[in-house]
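Re: that backbone. Tokens:
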């Protein structure tokens, strides 16, 4: 029995995560599901956005299903998801993007770079340190090379080595690791890469890049699939993994019951794949595709279905399919 920690979070997180949990329970009613409260609402209620006890629960989990959290632009408030990624050392952030004629895996370094959390404010300026270490880069480069080796044996390294020393360093280490693995590489400046991925997605397979560039590239790449409501992500560490939609808490639509639950449900496909259940992961993807093909879509995709309607339709699709357990 695997303990799965469920952290719905804020905004649309608690609206979409229950359907993801139901999908997971469809395959694994026997697993232990542990709900936790964290995020901005939790902070407003208890004064603590991520309590020591919740953090311990997360650390002990094998798998975490995370919704989204609101980060108010208050300098005193520290982003919970960034803290979790660092505390649990979830160093690889995987964001698959696929559709007709393209199948891209964006791999983002998840613990350092511009999101290292080393920042301070002075009287008339503010500084954020962009930290790129050899250890941090080698492990993400090795991870990306291992993924590329299992796919088309090609790695694109998104960088800005022309202006940033920290990126020249990142690039050099990635090249060394790719040479050791025997895969081919492409170096691309991140700004041009974002555009090219949108114009020619079929040219790409595995892309590795630093923290903030991966954040921006993957949100932009969501365009290829119809928007942020569609993309899941996996945050992988040495011993545990956290799955979360790429989107945030979407305060503009929270409470309306129209959030797209597909990204959250796809997180379950990633989770099952991570747990070695490729066939079940494929079944989840197929069920989602069948529902969308039937025109059952939330407004972000041009439809008029509610979160509930899409979520329930996916569950119904699953119930009508054979499962491999
Ligand atoms: P967002 O992803 O929450 O929303 C951006 C736009 O996409 C909004 O118009 C929203 O309505 C739409 N959208 C997002 N997910 C959707 C879904 N499932 N269905 C339909 N439409 C969807 O990003 P935004 O507005 O920049 O940030 C809102 C809050 O979320 C902020 O407090 C931010 O800090 C937080 N955030 C949290 C993340 C996390 O928990 N990992 C990631 C990104 C943002
Ligand atoms: Mg983002």
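Recovered sequence:
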């Amino acid at each position: 029995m695997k303990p799965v920690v469920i952290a719905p979070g804020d905004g649309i997180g608690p609206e979409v995560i229950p359907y993801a949990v139901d999908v997971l329970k469809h395959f694994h009613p026997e697993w232990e599901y542990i709900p936790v409260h964290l995020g901005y609402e939790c902070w407003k209620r208890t004064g603590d956005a991520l309590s020591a006890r919740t953090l311990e629960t997360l650390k002990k989990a094998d798998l975490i299903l995370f919704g989204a959290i609101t980060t108010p632009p208050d300098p005193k408030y520290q982003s919970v998801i960034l803290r979790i990624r660092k505390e649990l050392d979830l160093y690889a952030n995987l964001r698959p993007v696929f559709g007709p004629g393209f199948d891209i895996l964006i791999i983002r370094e998840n613990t350092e770079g511009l999101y290292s959390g080393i920042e301070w404010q002075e009287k008339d300026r503010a500084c954020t340190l962009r930290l790129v270490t050899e250890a941090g880069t080698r492990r993400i480069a090795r991870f990306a090379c291992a993924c590329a080796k299992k796919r088309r044996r090609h790695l694109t390294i998104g960088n800005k080595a022309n202006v940033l020393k920290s990126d020249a360093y990142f690039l050099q280490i990635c090249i060394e690791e790719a040479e050791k693995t025997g895969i081919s590489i492409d170096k691309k400046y991140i700004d041009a890469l974002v555009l090219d991925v949108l114009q020619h997605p079929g040219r790409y397979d595995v892309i590795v890049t630093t923290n903030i560039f991966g954040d921006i590239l993957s949100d932009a790449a969501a365009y290829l699939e119809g928007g942020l409501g569609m993309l899941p992500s996996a945050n992988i560490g040495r011993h545990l993994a956290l799955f979360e939609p790429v989107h945030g808490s979407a305060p503009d639509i929270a409470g309306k019951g129209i959030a797209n639950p597909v990204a959250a449900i796809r997180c379950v496909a990633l989770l099952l794949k991570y747990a070695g259940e490729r066939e079940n992961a494929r079944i989840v993807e197929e069920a989602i595709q069948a529902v969308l093909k039937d025109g059952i879509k939330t407004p972000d995709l041009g439809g008029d279905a509610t979160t509930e309607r899409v979520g329930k339709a996916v569950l119904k699709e699953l119930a009508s399919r054979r499962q491999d357990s």
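The radius of gyration is 19 Å. Residues 59 and 88 are 6 Å apart (CA to CA).
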